[in-house]
From TrEMBL:
SUPFAM superfamilies associated with the record: Homeodomain-like
Signal peptide range: none
Protein source organism: Capsicum annuum
Major location category of this protein: nucleus
Region (Disordered): 1-21
Official protein name in the record: Transcription factor
Keyword entries, A-Z: DNA-binding, Nucleus, Repeat, Transcription, Transcription regulation
InterPro entries named in the record: EOBI/EOBII-like_plant, Homeodomain-like_sf, Myb_dom, SANT/Myb
Amino acid sequence: METDMSFLSKTSSSSSSDDDIELRRGPWTIEEDNLLVHYITNHGEGRWNMLAKHAGLKRTGKSCRLRWLNYLKPDVKRGNLTPQEQLMILELHSKLGNRWSKIAHYLPGRTDNEIKNYWRTRVQKQARNLKIDANSAAFQEMIRYLWIPRLLQKIQSSSSVMPSIQSPQSTPQGFNIEKNSTNTSRCSSCSSSHSSNIYNSTNIMSECPKIPPRDIGDSDLNSFVKAHFPVDDNSYDVDNYGQLATGNYYNDVMDYDQMSGDQNKLTGDVLSDSFWSNMDEFFYQKQDMSHCR
DNA sequence: AAAGCCTCCAACCGCGGAGTT
DNA sequence: GAACTCCGCGGTTGGAGGCTT
């Protein structure tokens, strides 16, 4: 993939005449990738500014580091985030905030950049759909009580063998679903212990009273929402949740996604795996269930 | 078919902390 | 301890490709 070379530039960090070379910016070429990989294979990573010079790359050290860590490093995982990984991100973000590198630490093969992008493009998108601040208590509650349980359901239904959520080197402090020595877990939703852990979270679905069951009806969901979404935040909009429970809200969201006019999509392929990757699925599933009543 | 719009993600930028001189 | 350099982090941007009209 050869790219436009027109955006050559100097960086302000160049200080000596020796460094006064044209530095490349923009997408990396295959040749540059090869140079970087070859150099790091032979000499190791680190000392990025020096590495950039010695490798013959007309790039800043920062650019080389980023390219290596986010793309070229052999253990970088490619492809969509699994539901397990998404679950980890949601849980960890609730505890760590926008500390992407810290979150990435618990997801081997995933980079801080990738996680940050996921959060901005998927999670914050849902906040926009719901017209609430992604940092608001209401949205945090939405994630905790609706999104995370749905991911757990997805994990449960997609595999009878609990998947490869990587155990971190050390459990992050305050992580919501903690494995302990007696093989029980403290659940973030109800603060009680269940006989499962983050690596086998399926039991949480049936044991946690705060997680709505998969086949919850509209009236039950309404009760659930009222019971578990405390009205203690100015940005919290009770009416929105009322709409959520009655189904009107799904229409709003679908309008946003420009799908409201195609009911076939709602009951058909829209329920495919790809849709389980974000909150949209929840709304589609609810819409689908409403047809069955 | 094409124009416009949207989404996603690779890459850049600025900043602050750590290390070195 | 001041000045400088390097490194890593989080925020932001720009462009490719897909989708819609």
